Amino acid sequence: MSKTPFSEIIERYPAERSSILSILEDIQAEYKYLPREALEMVAERLHVKLSEVYQLATFYKAFSLTPKGDYLVKVCLGTACHVGGGPRVLAAMEKALGIRAGETSPDNRFSLEAIRCVGACALGPMVLVNERPYSKMTPMKAEELAGQLKRGEVPITPAAVVVEARPSGPVDLSAVPPAG
Ligand code: FES
User: Fold this and answer.
1) Which of 114, 36, 33 shows the shortest CA–CA distance to 66?
2) Which atom of ligand 1 is nearest to the CA of 120?
3) What is the Å distance from ligand 1's center to 105 Cα?
4) Is 81 in the pocket of ligand 1 (CB under 6 A)?
5) Residue-level pLDDT at 67
6) pLDDT in tens, 77-96
7) Ligand 1 and 79: CB distance under 6 A
8) Looking at the structure, do residues 79 and 27 belong to the same domain, yes or no?
9) In whole angstroms, what is the distance from residue 74 CA to residue 72 CA?
10) Contact present, 139 and 92 (Cβ < 8 Å)
């Protein structure tokens, strides 16, 4: 299935600065990351500096600047999930998917990430697949879930992207090119 062109996504919104976040959310949902060309087009069409678009793209943890697999699997290793067995769930997921946390499979089907608290501690250990939550996970349930993903039994379409600022520290501007 072909993806919606960047220009079409950008045109859904008024050409003004306040549209940046909504446009980035839609591009992230469609492409599972924010390609550089998309950020350049957003800057150009909305008449804002590219550095400003990059600043938002790096500030919100729902956004990624690198490509992800069709299935983005996130295993929570926040305190509660860690205590509840999150590391064992992650290890089972790594084994079942054949990739380590932080990696994407060579066929681009799966990306695996260890993440911090997603705010559902009572239901942990938590796993998110394209932002869909799976609660009370165990190594066995992780293995079953990985099997469902491999068989394509879980929809690839992402649940709504949750835009949440990165929890701490200043905005990482290391990826920001000179303003242009
Ligand atoms: S620690 Fe995992 S949801 Fe809070």
Assistant:
1) 33
2) 3
3) 25
4) yes
5) 85
6) 999 999 999 999 999 999 99
7) yes
8) no
9) 6
10) yes
Residues 9-66 have pLDDT tens digits of 999 999 999 999 999 999 998 888 899 999 999 999 999 999 999 999 999 878 889 8
pLDDT at 176 over 70: no
| 117 found inside a domain | yes
- How many separate domains does the chain show? 2
Q: What 3-state DSSP class applies to 133? A: strand
Say if ligand 1 is within 6 A of residue 118 CB.
yes
DSSP string, 32-90: SS--HHHHHHHHHHHT--HHHHHHHHHHBTT--SS---SEEEEEE-SHHHHHTTHHHHH
CATH code (residue 97): 3.40.30.10
Domain assignment of residue 31, yes or no: yes
Residues 79 and 49 in one domain: no
Instruction: Enter the tokens of residue 3.
Output: 């993806």
Mutate to test the pocket of ligand 1, among 74, 75, 76 (most ligand atoms within 8 A of CB): 76
Residue 177, domain member (yes or no): no
Residue 16 token pair: 């003004």
Whether 126 is in the pocket of ligand 1, judged by its Cβ within 6 Å, is yes
